């Protein structure tokens, strides 16, 4: 697992350095996906291609799932079925506008279980990393690695909660409705614009919890492992795993309180 972690970290750093070097004042969207506000830039594609090439060079038999180009099948090896799960820029709108919360997210899955995860946040000079069973760390150049622990024992009324919004108008309408019921009973809400960064913020204790309808596996695979290795719980509603229906993450006690607040609000729906 450590070999996977350090290879993922090296590749995430290289992709992040490329993105910082090539980003222009306002990169143009070259394509939209689910709606006209759900955008892709040429650098999303370039970042994913760089990561694919580096993985292929080191691990030619592994499967690869990227947000932009989809899945490439791999082969069974003595290590099991290995799959790399990649978001080449999580937070593309932030990237376009020059906001700092965007990341290169790389997770490594073996036989369906994520065993290593890296989230590189280049504008902040921060790289979050975790291997299953090995804890989570924040790495910054010139600074000793920081062991991460999520906040614990925070009551719902004192919790700072991160969330995000989808790109479809009918989804945003429901998310706004849910938010009006959550905001009065928590300390405050933060909307950073990157699921991967939000999950790392839970791990680092910068926010106490996170929930969102809509994140895909490439958004939460790496950040979710990092949060769990920092002591958090991640999942969906009513015992289901995290998914695009809903992803919820917090320390165990707060997880349950936030879960119980959300369930009657039916946040998994669209108009």
From TrEMBL:
<keyword id="KW-0479">Metal-binding</keyword>
<dbReference type="Pfam" id="PF00459">
    <property type="entry name" value="Inositol_P"/>
</dbReference>
<dbReference type="InterPro" id="IPR020583">
    <property type="entry name" value="Inositol_monoP_metal-BS"/>
</dbReference>
<dbReference type="InterPro" id="IPR033942">
    <property type="entry name" value="IMPase"/>
</dbReference>
<dbReference type="InterPro" id="IPR000760">
    <property type="entry name" value="Inositol_monophosphatase-like"/>
</dbReference>
<keyword id="KW-0460">Magnesium</keyword>
<dbReference type="GO" id="GO:0016787">
    <property type="term" value="F:hydrolase activity"/>
</dbReference>
<dbReference type="InterPro" id="IPR020550">
    <property type="entry name" value="Inositol_monophosphatase_CS"/>
</dbReference>
<keyword id="KW-0378">Hydrolase</keyword>
<comment type="similarity">
    <text>Belongs to the inositol monophosphatase superfamily.</text>
</comment>
<protein>
    <recommendedName>
        <fullName>Inositol-1-monophosphatase</fullName>
        <ecNumber>3.1.3.25</ecNumber>
    </recommendedName>
</protein>
């Amino acid at each position: 697992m450590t070999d996977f972690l350090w290879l993922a970290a090296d590749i995430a750093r290289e992709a992040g350095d490329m993105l910082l070097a090539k980003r222009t004042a306002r990169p143009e969207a070259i394509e939209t996906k689910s709606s006209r506000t759900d955008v892709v830039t040429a650098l999303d594609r370039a970042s994913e291609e760089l990561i694919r090439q580096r993985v292929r060079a080191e691990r030619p038999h592994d499967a690869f799932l990227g947000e932009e180009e989809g899945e490439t099948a791999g082969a069974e090896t003595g290590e099991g079925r290995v799959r790399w799960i990649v978001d080449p820029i999580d937070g593309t709108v932030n990237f376009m506008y020059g906001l700092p919360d965007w990341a290169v997210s790389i997770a490594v899955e073996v036989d369906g279980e994520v065993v290593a995860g890296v989230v590189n946040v280049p504008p902040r000079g921060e790289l979050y990393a975790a291997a299953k069973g090995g804890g989570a760390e924040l790495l910054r150049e010139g600074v000793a690695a920081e062991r991460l622990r999520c906040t614990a024992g925070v009551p719902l009324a004192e919790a700072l909660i991160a969330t995000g919004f989808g790109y479809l108008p009918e989804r945003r309408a429901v998310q706004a409705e849910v938010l009006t019921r959550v905001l009065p009973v928590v300390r405050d809400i933060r909307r950073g614009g990157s699921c991967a960064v939000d999950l790392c913020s839970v791990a680092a204790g910068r926010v106490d919890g996170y929930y969102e309808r809509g994140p895909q596996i490439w958004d939460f695979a790496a950040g979710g492992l990092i949060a769990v290795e920092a002591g958090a719980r991640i999942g969906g509603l009513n015992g289901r795993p995290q998914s695009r229906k809903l992803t919820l993450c917090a320390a165990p006690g707060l997880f349950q309180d936030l879960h119980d607040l959300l369930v009657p609000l039916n946040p998994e729906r669209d108009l």
